[in-house]
Design goal:
The chain is mostly helical. Helix content is 55%, strand content 6%. It has a two-stranded antiparallel ribbon with strand order 1-2. The protein has a two-stranded antiparallel sheet with strand order 3-4.
């Protein structure tokens, strides 16, 4: 089904994209009108978008059919899960130290993963942990091999992630699941769960934002959608962010 105008970026105006100052550090955080919360890429604190709008989705009887989930019923961040996310963010910042670029990358992957989670489904604890910890082995790889190649990150990431998760009292099954995702988030490995697919797609979305995978060129993104992304919502999000928005750049500004 074609997306309704209220959710389709091609119909947006400049007022549908806003910047909100982080209450903790003052950094300006950019929001699309459909994003309720994001983490500040500077300090990692949660910022709320007071101008959030899901268009007709909150009241339309066809919201379930249109979006694939009922926005009136789905709430990803329970208090408990959000507390775990905050503790994981602190653990990531402790491990990565002053490496703001990689901390910001992890936070952006988390943002996209949380956006995909209601549509794809899965364990919020596993998705949030894997999104934040997917590259957690990068400094260990650099210390050991003086190299941050993706296969080394996959190799050295799981032991670091396991230590962090066990300190946070994650249940053993979730620890194992997260570590399998961390150890496969570039190669694919032997895992194919909803949680893995979400983190895979979220990481690719940030890679496009950061200038990889064709640098966000709309034609290139359109060409790689089906080969690069593992979920339909991930492909739709990539098309909205990098293809439809570019084609309608005059409307959004």
């Amino acid at each position: 089904m074609q997306q309704c105008p209220g959710q389709d970026m091609r119909f947006w105006t400049p007022e549908d994209v806003t910047e909100i100052a982080c209450g903790n550090c003052g950094h300006l955080v950019e929001f699309f009108k459909t994003e309720g919360r994001r983490r500040c890429p500077e300090c990692g604190k949660r910022v709320t978008n007071p101008a959030v709008s899901t268009g007709c989705a909150q009241w339309c009887e066809h919201a379930q059919e249109c979006l694939g989930f009922d926005p009136g019923e789905v709430e990803v961040e329970t208090e408990q899960v959000q507390s775990i996310a905050d503790r994981l963010v602190e653990a990531v910042k402790k491990e990565l130290g002053s490496d703001k670029k990689r901390i910001s990358h992890a936070l952006r992957v988390l943002d996209h993963a949380e956006a995909l989670l209601p549509e794809v489904g899965g364990s919020p604890r596993v998705v949030i942990a894997a999104a934040l910890l997917h590259d957690i082995g990068i400094h260990q790889a650099e210390r050991t091999y003086d190299n941050a190649a993706t296969k080394l990150r996959e190799q050295d990431g799981p032991p670091v992630a396991r230590c962090i998760l066990e300190e946070l009292d994650f249940e053993p099954e979730s620890v194992d699941h997260v570590c399998r995702i961390v150890g496969s988030h570039h190669s694919g490995g032997d895992i194919d769960t909803s949680e893995f697919r979400i983190v895979w797609d979220a990481d690719r979305l940030v890679n496009i934002e950061e200038g990889e995978l064709g640098g966000g060129d709309p034609q290139h993104v359109e060409a790689i959608l089906h080969d690069t992304f593992l979920t339909a919502p991930g492909r739709a999000r990539a098309r909205e962010l990098f293809v439809d928005t570019a084609n309608g750049a005059g409307a959004i500004g």
